[in-house]
Structures are given as structure tokens and as C-alpha cells.
Amino acid sequence: MPVYPIEHEKLTLLCDPESGCCAVRLSGGAEWRMTDRPFLRFADGRTVFFSPPEQVKPFRNGTASGIRAVYRGFGGAEAEIVVSTCTCVERTSGDVIFEVRAEGDAAGEIEAVSFPPPFRSDAAPGHGYTVLPRMQGMLVPAGETVSLTDGRIFERDGYMPLYGQVRDGSGYAAVFDTPFDACYALEEDRVAPLWQPSLGRMRYARRMLFRFLENADYNAIAKAYRAYVRERGGLVTLREKAARNPAVERLLGCAVVHTDVAVHVSPQSEYYRPGEPEKNDWVTTFDRRGEQLRALKARGLEKCYTHFDGWGRHGYDNLHPSPFPPNEAAGGAAGMRRLSETVRSLGYLFGIHDQYRDYYYDAPDFSFSEAVENADGTHPFCSIWYGGPHTYLCSARAADYVRRNYDEFRRLGIGLDGAYLDVFSVVRLDECFSPDHPATREQCAANRRRCLDLLTSRGILPSSEEVLDCILPSQVLCHHAPYTTTELGAPGSEAVGVPIPLLNLVYHDCVVIPWSGLPGERGGWGIPAGDSGYAHAALNGGPVYCPIQADAETVRAVRRVCELAGRTACSEMVRHEFVDSGRRRQRTVFADGTAVEADLDAGTFSVSRA
Q1: Secondary structure of the chain: what % helix, strand, coil (to 5)?
Q2: Class of the CATH-defined domain 260-294+307-479
Q3: Among 2.170.150.40, 2.120.10.80, 2.70.98.30, 2.130.10.10, what is the CATH number of 4-231?
Q4: pLDDT band at 1 (very low <50, low <70, confident <90, very high)
């Protein structure tokens, strides 16, 4: 069977339908090749590779030229599975598009489809790297390996539906154009896209877009993706969000004070400590937190966003989505109202923790009829968190609870400036098989965004845990979005790969990302051992967390980095670079001309105009 060349001024695409592979030869002479054959992986453990195609048809339409192919021979439980592919070059952009559709699969029959096959980098050590969207972002230098949890897009392995590779200045940005049921696998120097079923079946065509680049580096890959997102209307900046909700302007440059009010750990929670009752139940009153904030203001902290955990009846991570009334031992509704008034009188922003995914069995209106339902009719189960046994609330029902609860805050006279809807922007997108409220992963993302948009419509700043690309247009603030380390949260965790601010290179001017770390501190949650989180904050143009009992010296340090964050918040991060060979000194440049150079060992930074 022949190899089909497709010519474009930027590149030549060589299609080999028999193997399912391609090669791309760039105008500058660099070549990227596939060698692995595409396959279907079945739920029973079988892997069936594509056989030579039954049909091959070149095509040319008004915008693209390419090859369509049809593959059979996969078998099938109820009907013969047929796979159709389309590989083409868009004539306007030079982008290479790969599309695959699997039809005839029975519910639960297919586990994953691999197409297109991965490009091989073949870069020698020191001559290239792979770019991955794991949390804030990372490089895997040629010759090195890292392990993935599951490579799922829209979890920590994939904040963005993007990866890329660079070899001797040539490279590409690979974009999951249909990202909601997508994963990737990493093996040596190859990144393979994998497509999962939606509600048990493949259901629709899946697409990858590859943009090949001359003079490539990870900055160019990030900017290629930013252009892709902007073209599709997904790049919603803080300026645009502020136009919808003026409170966004007040957030810029704020330090974040994150503290709690009440804790009750269920005996059935994995956090329960038998014999240590003081660790299972305790309360700090709303009024006491107000006193601490007044003292913090007196010590010089002018701008602050407060985030209070554990305000509900049983405290933190309990009874959701029905945590009312406010904790009585902490002061009840009247005490929470006084705290809100105190925060606002100080010129601070009053924000709370909330939760609309974990669905606790002891919630007063709990019903399995509103829970996520698995394909077999069962429900997910978890008992890790403080509130003990729970399942997950179906995303299709979440917005109704948000509306009800924020009406209740209004009825109680508790003014809110911000609300953190826990885990919406970090945990996997839920599928629900309930016939009464089915939800695909794509619908789950839309449902989560709807909850955040409800907050915006009420003038409340919407935040969530980390930063998933599919949630970000409706999100203003996150808890953190740091780097992948060997054991997240464990002291001494080392960096996985080479950390880079890939997310910020795309979205810095679209979301406020706080960082953990003060002068003198090293390591931390998502901060590699030995690194200064304070320096990372400055480098990334982000604010830092401030302890509620910070002394005057700490407040001065917090103000310095937060003032920088306020100045750069609405500016695109245009470039990041390593200043020294050890990668301990790094530099970022923002669109307003601000340049920040940080020393991750010393924990220092300097600011100049580029």
C-alpha cells in the first residue's frame, strides 16, 4: 500500500494507512516519525492492533487535504466494531489533524482507543525534552523517565489538554481537541493519546490537533496553545471577569489568609485519631477570628482575602451539601454575621469554604436518588475526609443546592465576597449513569461551571482547589496550582521532571494563583524540597498565604510579593527562562514589561523593567 504525501508550505505529511502511522517533515528539514501501531484496548484485557485498512480514500475539501481510512477486524460483542480515521493538513494554518471514530461497540466493551500513534522524539540527552501539563507544568529531558498516575486530562496529570516535544529547536504542540474523555500515556520518549468511552461507549469522533513549530521551546508550545484557546473563546481574562464582577479588582494584590473555625472528625473517617480527642473536635469562635484579623490589620496587612473552613454545623468537610446552620459553638449565624462585618470593615474580602461534590450520608436531606450512579447501578463510596462516609452528588443536581444555600446566607444576613467550591477544579470529571440525571464528563464540567457562574451572578468571587482548563473561564481564584513532586504534601518531596510555569505561560492573566511559602521556608505542598515557595510566588506573579497571626516582619514580606502580584495580575506571562545551568535562578517576563528574577535557593527575587 502506498505512502500518501500531503504538501503544505510549512510541512509535508506522509501518511501510511497500512500501519496507521505518519511522518511529518518540516520545511526546515526536521522530521518527526511515528512507529507504534494504533490499537483498541478492550475491557476484558485484550489489545487488538489496527490491521491493514479495508478502505483508503484521499480527499481534498475547501479547507484541508488528507486521507480517510476504514479498519475492521476488531471483533465485537454485539456487532462488528468499525474504526474510521481521518488524517489531514489544514491549508490555512498548516495544523495536522487526526480524527478517529469507533462504531459498533457495546456498553462497557472498549476501555481505550489509541490513535494517533505517538511521535518518537529520538532526541539525544541534552538535545530535547517532552512538555507535560502535570499541575503547573514540567519538562522531561531527553533520556530521563517519569511515571504517571493515569495521564487523565482534567486532573493533576493534565490541567490543560496539551503536551509537546522539542528536539534541537524543532517541536510541536499537541492539543486534545475533544478533551473530555481523553488520557495520555508516556513511555520513554513517546506520548500516546488515549480515548476513553463516554457513558460506556465511544459515541463520537475524537480529534487531536498538532501544530508543528520551527525554533521551538516550551514557551512557544505554551503560546501556540494560548492562541488555540483564544481563537475558540476560552481565554477569559481577569479584566473580562472583572467586567462581570467588580469584586475581582479588589482581589488583585491581596494576600490570602486561610484559617478554620470548627473541626469534627467522624470516627469513620480515615483522619480520626482514637485516644486523641483534641485532634478530632475543636472550635475557634467567629469572634476570635475577627479579633485576630483586626490585629493583623494593625500590623500592616492592608489587602487581604480571607478563606474560612469549618463554618458549618459540624465543622469542616461535614454534612455537605447541607451544612447549615452555622456552627453554634463558634457563635452561630449571629457570630458568622459579625465576622463578615468585621472582615468587610477592615477592607478585607470575606470568603468561605463550601462543597458540592462530596455527598455525606448524614446530611439532613441525603438521598441516593441524587447521587452519582455507576454503570452497574451502584454508587461511589469514600470515607477519607472528616465527615466520614459519603458518595458524590451528581453534578446535574449541584447548582440547585448552590442556589438554595446562597439564598440562605442572604436570609441570614451573612454577606459573602468569595466562595470556594471544593475540588471542582482538580478531581476527575464525574460520569453519572442515572436515567433520571445522566451526565457525561463534558456535561459535568458545564455543571461545575454553572455553580461558579451562580456565585458570579451574585457578586461573589468564585474559587476552587486547583486549575482545570475546562473550569477556568468561570473561576477567578484557586487554592494553589504548584508543581508535581514525588509525594504531594510530604516533607522533602522532590520535583518530578523539571518544573516550569506552563499553566501561567498560558493563563497567568486569567486567574489568581496563591503560593505557599514565606522567607526562610523551603519545600511544601507542591513545592520541591529545597525550593523557596516565596521565590516561586514572585517568579509566577502570584500572591502568598499570610498566617492569621503573622508578625510585622512577615507582613512586610507578604506585602512585597503581593504588591508585585497586584501589578502583574492582568498581564500575560510572555516568557520564562532558566538563568543558570543548575536551573536554580529563573526569570519571567510579563506583558507590561515587568521582569522578575528569582533565586530558588536563596529565596530572593529582584524586579526590573524588561
Answers
A1: 20, 30, 50
A2: alpha beta
A3: 2.70.98.30
A4: low
